[in-house]
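Recall the central idea of this unit: under ordinary conditions, the amino acid sequence of a chain determines the structure it adopts. In this exercise we apply that idea directly, starting from the sequence alone.
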Amino acid sequence: MPQQHHTQPGDRFNRYFKIAPALCDQLRNEVFHIRHEVYAREFGFEPLRADEKETDAYDRHSLHCIVKTADDADHLVGCARIVMPDPDAPHAPLPFEIACRDTLDRSIIDPAKLPRHRIAEVSRLAVMADFRRRKGEKLSADASLNEQDFGGVGVHRFPNIPLSLYSAAVLMAQRQDIEYLFVLTEPRLSKHFAKFGVNITPIGEPIDFHGIRVPSVMRVAEIYPGLRTLFRPIWHAIEKQLDVAYAAGLPVVSSQADFETNSELLALH
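Accordingly, the structure predicted from this sequence is:
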């Protein structure tokens, strides 16, 4: 019998996708467009806007990552946001601290008592509809997880995009010395992530925010050591792509002044 050759998950990710931190206005605007298409146009969670960009006040002090197809830089796939504490008001609450003010179980963890420079929140994860559809599956703003997305005989689906975006968010947060990443997740998400060794700990009662969501936390330092073997090649591929982008790109945005500085630097490139 002829020997079968199967592409490794990391190689498959690189073949299909490019993932990068949104370090310039052009990439950030593409992130905002993805969010508008998913959260406003498709699901109606946010109002439609003439400029087709979904933004809010937290974007001023957030990091963003974006996924596109590898063969077409104009083909947008998905995005995620890491909300950092406001450098001008570090004790101002993150979005989940407001939404879950009355439902957090502070005996598990109390974000108000943590060093503000060591916490952040992953939010506004969005995947374009064409990359969420599976036969017979109801659509949601992200997408469910399935081990078949990570390779195997006869499997040809894309590597899982939401978990890849969360991985990029963790890697980007790690660069900022973030210790705790908070997230509002669908109830099923922590169970799906557990399949791949990602520990997401619920820290409060569910709330109704763009559907039922559970406040949860990830310890950044614990994510990679806990990953199952099948996902590590994709993690390494994402890490390498981010490293290349940071090496070639601009400083991480953390304030409005940085936005303006980056715009000036872009003119020099």
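Confidence is low (pLDDT under 50) at residues 1-5, 135-139, 143-157, 251-269.
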